[in-house]
Amino acid sequence: IWAAILACLATAFLAGMFLLSFGTAGGFTDADRAALKAKTEAGVVALEAAIQASPVARAPAILSDPYLKLALNPGQPGIGKVTPPSLADAFATAANSAVLSDNTQMTVGLFDKSGALLVYAGGGHDELVEAALLPNFVTAPTDKEDQFSAALRGTLHVARISKADEAGRRLVAIHPLDLGANSIFRRILGTQNPAALVRSGQPLENTLINPGNSGEALTKFAVEHGKDAPGVGASDAFKVGDGLNARIGSIGRVPGPAGAGDDGAMLVVLSANTAAAGQKDLFTALGEAKANGLSGEHLAILLFVLAISLALAFYLPNLEAANPIRRLTAEFNAMRLGSQQQLFYDTYGAGPVAELAKSAHGYHEALRSSLAAGVAEEDGDPSGRASRRVPAVSTRSHRKVPGRTGAVDRVDAPPVVATPGPAEDEAPTMAHPSVPSSSQPAAGRGPGFFTMPATKPLRSRETVIGNLMTMDNEASASGPEPAKDDAVREAYYQEVFEEFVKFKLENNEPIDNFTYEKFATKLRANTAELMKRPDVKDVQFSVYIKDGKVALKARVVRG
Predict the structure, then answer these.
(1) InterPro entries this protein is in (predicted)?
(2) Spatial distance between the Cα atoms of 53 and 158, rounded to a whole number of angstroms
(3) How many other CB atoms are there within 10 angstroms of residue 542's CB atom?
């Protein structure tokens, strides 16, 4: 959690510095967006001017050629006996002399009133036939001329339709829109900005201005923002691409029928520079930000976040290392004072502190075994039999105690068989180094706090539970025990109290003002109450965890 907080604070500071150096609008300012929109609008206007200035406007002059008129009307009065030329020859001669000699890319054709092509001149036969199918040709008034844009065969053209003659025949001329280096469009739009005329997700032929190989970005922008293109003018600037290679772009419709509808031709213009060009060094960015209204309060907040991040960077590692050491020290002190009997090394996870705890636990277990062996030797007689009775421990060699994460199978000390001897009261005693003897009371303990017997080595939690369970099992198996005398019962109460205190410490429950006298008084009262029953021979107690708290349960031994 602390690491996540530190990472968030550091990220907040770095994000603030990055935004200052990168720009407030992702690398593009409002001025950049407004300039791009204006340039796109200018490109749309330039396209309209180029459409109106197309040389197809001169095509209807073909119909005034006298030989073409003779071919179209061979029986008209006033011609005399002149043999009329063929329509194809007369049309080709008139077209070449009027417009085709100066505009080699133009194609002209003559259509009857049903829309069938009678004759044509030029190299764009397929485009000419496609133009005759456009709504502007089919629904055009016969008494008016029209000039409009048309996307034919993947190329943007300008088409011109003449008035119909007496027979309903009309002249149609088409010419590819001139977008070359000398065109009005190119002079106004320039060549620095990537631009293209795109229709249905594909750029139209000979209309791509592509500095830096931006064709994919142009078509992607047209597909994503085609619906944002207004009927007149250009759209607002939108972002295209990701990261430092991102650009902004604007889109507008080609004037005339070519730009109408969802699949109309669109003019797409992108910014000349990517977002990376908007980056500045920190001092330059801070200077510009200050000039744009950045106050000292903003800088103070950023510096404050930086200071907090640096402070936590030094404090948190020390905190993470010191807390386990403090907890380990507290466990050692608890073992020294007798309120805890073993080191809970399995709660330290991994790392140097865990290794230290495991080593200390192993040493403590070895010392406990050595102490138990030493007591047996000191109390033994020459024949090898122990001369002093010590409490028997469980004969079960393995027992897994639930309730603790990482608990392992434990091997208890072998049972000591003791028989009373004549030297019972003279047997020397050996106290555990961490347990005060009865002649030296533990410092810092309140009155009545229990003291472990000096001749009994420290026992693990598993051993004590095993003893209690063994007593229960033996009592059930072998029948009722004889009633304990007062001294034995008090020793039993002290053992239960010791286990109760250990459980409370392990369960992180307070033991302030918790004395043996109060505890034993309660046990005596419960025992006396239960012993009033005629069938009860003895009362035993067991310590367990109930609803997350340490509790005591009484068990009667019936006769």
Answers:
(1) MXAN_5187-like
(2) 10
(3) 16
Res. 379: pLDDT tops 90: no
Inter-residue contact 149 to 132 (CB < 8 Å) = no
Question: What is the spatial distance between Cα 397 and Cα 392, in angstroms, rounded to a whole number?
Answer: 13
Please report which helix (H) or strand (E) contains residue 68, including its range: helix 66-72
- 22, amino acid identity: F
CA dist 250 and 35 (Å) reads 10
Geometric angle at alpha carbon 518, from 513 and 519, rounded to 5°: 105
**CB within 8 Å of 494: residues ≥ 6 apart:** 450, 516, 520
Query: Does residue 174 register a pLDDT over 90?
Result: yes
Distance CA 50, CA 46 (A): 6
Q: Check whether 307 has a pLDDT greater than 90.
A: no
Global pTM reads 0.48
List, in sequence order, the alpha helices (H) in 247-347: 282-291, 296-337
Q: Which two tokens stand for residue 28?
A: 């593009």
Query: Cα–Cα distances in Å, from 32 out to 248, 400, 500?
Result: 9, 74, 77
Lookup: tokens for 3:
């690491």
C-alpha span between 172 and 293 (Å, rounded): 62
The listed range with the strongest mean pLDDT (46-50, 186-190, 398-402) is 46-50
Question: What pLDDT, on a 0 to 100 scale, did the predictor assign at position 316?
Answer: 72
Buried b (16+ CB within 10 A) or exposed e, 215-227: eebbbbbbeebbe
Q: Are 545 and 403 in contact (CB under 8 A)?
A: yes
Q: Could you please report the per-residue DSSP string of 467-536?
A: HHHHHHHHHHHH-PPPPP-HHHHHHHHHHHHHHHHHHHHHTT---TT--HHHHHHHHHHHHHHHHTSTTE
Backbone angles phi and psi of 148, in degrees to 5: -155, 170
Q: Is 441 helix (H, G, I), strand (E, B) or coil?
A: coil
Q: How far apart are CA 182 and CA 45, in angstroms?
A: 16
Using CA atoms, how far apart are residues 389 and 54, in angstroms rounded to an integer?
124
For tokens 């699949």, the residue is 263
Closest CA to 429 of 460, 395, 452: 452
443/357: higher pLDDT: 357
Q: Are 274 and 246 in contact, with CB atoms under 8 Å apart?
A: yes
Q: What is the pLDDT of residues 47-61, one digit of tens each?
A: 898 899 899 999 998
Question: Which residues face 171 on adjacent strands?
Answer: 110
Torsion angle of the four alpha carbons 542, 546, 549, 551, in this order, in degrees rounded to the nearest 10: -30
